[in-house]
Amino acid sequence: MKSLSKQEAAEFLSSATITETSIEEGIEIAHRGTSADGTPFVLISGRDDGMAMLFTTELSSALETLGLL
Fold it and tell me: What is the model's pTM?
């Protein structure tokens, strides 16, 4: 898991392949896909502070298995 600023998240997503986007109340809150280096990821955007949390392979798989993603 890694914290990203709004700018870092935008830069990360610009080079990633996004396969799914979750939208809540018209706001993109999460993206799932593959990073530029081929690593599966889930990026969850912060609603108030603009920060985002980046989860890679193992954690995103565990969250999905638990039904949290």
Answer: 0.75
Assigned token pair, 50:
């603009």
Please give the radius of gyration of the chain, using alpha carbons only, rounded to the nearest integer.
11
Q: Is 61 left (phi over 0), alpha (psi -120 to 50) or beta?
A: alpha
Give the pLDDT confidence of 7-65 residue by residue, as tens digits: 999 999 999 999 999 888 888 888 989 999 998 898 988 766 778 988 887 666 666 77
Structure tokens at 41: 């990821």
Distance, CA of 33 to CA of 49 (rounded, Å): 23
- The DSSP element (H or E) to which 19 belongs, if any, is strand 17-24
